Structures are given as structure tokens and as C-alpha cells.
Amino acid sequence: MKTIRVNEFGGPEVLKLEEADAFSPQAGEVLVRVKAIGVNPYDTYMRSGAYGARNPTLPYTPGSDASGLVESVGPDITDLAIGDRVFTTGTITGAYAEFALCTRSQVHPLPQQLSFAEGAGIWVPYGTACRALFQLAQAQPGDWVLIHGASGGVGTAALQWARAAGMKIIGTAGSERGLELVKAEGAQYAFDHRSPDYQKQILETTNGEGVNVILEMLANINLGSDLKLLASAGRVIVIGSRGDVTITPRDLMARQASVIGMIVWNTPEADVLSIHAALKAGLKNGTLRPKVGLELPLASAEKAHRKIMEPGAFGKIVLVA
Fold it and tell me: How far lies 42's CA from each of 49, 59, 82, 236, 308, in Å?
């Protein structure tokens, strides 16, 4: 089978298409014939060796989010059939491949109305957004929510969750196309974060009161100014950051505000189950539906890693196996 392998940490060029032996599932395992793979920013951090304690052992195959068909199952698994449409929330062997070996708990039914490309964009974006918005920020209907980078994979997922929950949504993006997507996915207000006065516009939108919740995808750029946009007892959830940042603690003190960092893989099991229940309902009734912005062949993993780090995000980047 074809697989992407990382034999050394480094830039996108270390992603190599190689041949590998096929897998055979053991007890408690499922082999998925991969049709599509979701590319996530954390994949790039892991590839470069910048994911700290979660850096993988080399060599490895990247990726956790995939969709496809059940190819075979371990001898003890009776609730899945060969050919079932599924998506993954992790793998044993990596998702950037034609086949992925998974534990049974990592494999979930893919609703018929979703394409394989859409199915590859479920867990990391929607799990992250749900965890950030509801479990950590405890956002409520009627709250003002600011979603930075709202045109990307996690951003569009957060828009859909917040829209369904009846929140007042402000989204930012860095292109006209992205701003159109932000509005289409549920934001009542969309601002271009390239504009020098967009923060002033956000405060004016809230009549100077500030926002209750901020979902932050690039904390090293925005966190310092985020604190000035918060309402009293406001919360910033840091979802992504690519470096250090300087803040003014008095901005937190004056508002009795808080900053909470998160990685979806740190979510306690009970909270994971809660997210899955909400995901299942939202995918079934159409409230939640991944927005695919770009599909590339598996062999173009290097290009995908370059694209996902560029400004002007638009939906989910997916590799097609």
C-alpha cells in the first residue's frame, strides 16, 4: 500500500510517499480502506518536531482524521460490517495512507449524506470547536462570540456550533472569499483581520461592551489585543499558537477575565463521549457539515502542509487516497 512517511523532523519536504506492507487487524482493531484524509495544523507541528511531549517516534505516518470503508475487522468485532462507511477519530498506524489500522473506539459511522471528503474533516475541527466553545468557555445562547480565523477548518466548525446554539457571532478572515464563507456559515458580523481598525469595529459592534468568548487560532499574533476586546468575565480559549506573545496582565485583571489553553487530545474521556453525542446529532440533522475547500491527492501531502500554513484559510484541506 502507499503511505506518507516522515523519517526525520523538518519542513514539508520530509513527507515522503512510500510503499508499505498491508495491515491485519487483531482483536479490538479495524482496518479502514482510506478514501480521504483531513489535514490539520497540528500535523505540521508534529512533522516539524515542535509538538513537545506529543512528538511521535520516528519514522511515522501522520494524520488522525480519515474516512473510508471498513476493509476487515478483528475476530471479536461484530458491530461493523465489511464495506461500512466510517470516519476516524484517531488511528494506530496514521491516516496519510491507503489503509489505516484503528482501535474499535476510533471508528464511527459516517452519515450517508456526507461525502468521504467531508467525513475526513470531522473529529479534530468539530471536536476542538465543541470542546473550546461549550466545555471550556461555557458559552451560552445570546453570548457574543468572536471566532478568529473563522474561515478555516476549526473556524467553520465553531461557526456552525455557535449558530446552532443561538449565539451572537463575530468572525474574522483574511480574504474576501473567506469573509463570504464566514457569513454563509453563520456569523452575523465578519471582519477582515488585515484591516488596521478591525478591533475597533468589533468593539463598536458590541456597543463597547466587548465579547464574552474568543476562540483564538493564532495566539502569538492576537492574544495581547484579544484581552482588550473582552467583556467582564470574558474568556479566551487558545486553540492555536505559533510562538511567544506579550500581554498586559491588567487587561485580564480589570475584566476578571481568563485565558484557557487546550489541545483536543487532552480531553477527558467523559467529555469526549459528550462531544460524540452532540456530533452524532448535529451531523444527522444537518446542523453540522464540514466545508471542504481543497482536495489534493495523497502524493501531494507536502503541498497540503504548505497550504494549511498560508494566510487566507478557506474550509478544510483534504487528501484523497
Answer: 11, 17, 31, 20, 10
Which domains are delineated in the chain?
A: 2-122+290-320 (3.90.180.10), 124-265 (3.40.50.720)
| CA distances from residue 59 to 97, 203, 230, 304 in whole angstroms, order as listed | 14, 48, 44, 20
> Cα(100)–Cα(107) distance, rounded to whole angstroms?
11
Residue 22 DSSP class: P
Query: How does residue 54 score in pLDDT terms, banded at 50, 70 and 90?
Result: confident
Encoded amino acid at 152, one letter? G
pTM value? 0.96
| Confidence bin at 304 (pLDDT 50/70/90) | very high
- Going 5 to 8 to 9 to 11, the CA torsion angle's sign is negative
The answer to whether residues 20 and 52 touch, using CB atoms and an 8 Å cutoff, is: no
Q: How confident is the model at residue 148 (pLDDT cuts 50, 70, 90)?
A: very high
Between the CA of residue 262 and those of 77, 178, 205, 211, 267, what are the distances in Å?
Answer: 33, 25, 28, 20, 8
Mapped onto helix, strand or coil, the DSSP state of residue 152 is: strand
The phi, psi pair for 300, rounded to 5°, reads: -100, 30
